[in-house]
Amino acid sequence: MSEDSRKALIERSIPFLAEVRNRTAGNDLESWLNTTYGPDSELYQDLARLIRIGVVEEGWAANIEVDGPRYRRSVIAEPTAETHYFSITAVYMNSIERYRGQYHAHPYGELNLVVPVDPGAQLVGPNGWQGPGWTAPAPGSHHYPEVRGGALIALFYLPAGRISYDIRPSRSTGAAA
């Protein structure tokens, strides 16, 4: 494991987290993230490169199996003053057929950098399927993470590190609320 690439990812995230720390996840922030820090931006390129190194090359990120090797995650940084009280977590999901992960809720929302490993891989977000770019589920939202088209990495930032896996899906669809 290279502490250098892990440390670089955290250090590269800190100025970004300082910039978004007082914003609320949701449609407006998702649109702003994709406009300001979309796939062609330096920030997206740097974070995507570093998280690919951590998952694909060095194996220090998304290295804990949730549902076998196709669905893995790990916390990279706990919420601290240095990270503006955001946690940093990586999830790796691999699917040729559409695949659903573990149902969960975002008490304070989530900022999620979507990094396809395979061209065409997408993650469903509150506004539909997302390839390279960002999703930003609002506070109180809950969903199954879903992937289609291959493997991808989701690098997500959680305010106060809050995520809940003890919520149950609604009887209707279990989709985002």
From TrEMBL:
Matches recorded under InterPro entries: PnbB (IPR032345)
Short name of one Pfam family: PnbB
Protein name, UniProt field: PnbB
Natural source organism: Streptomyces spiralis
Lineage: Bacteria, Bacillati, Actinomycetota, Actinomycetes, Kitasatosporales
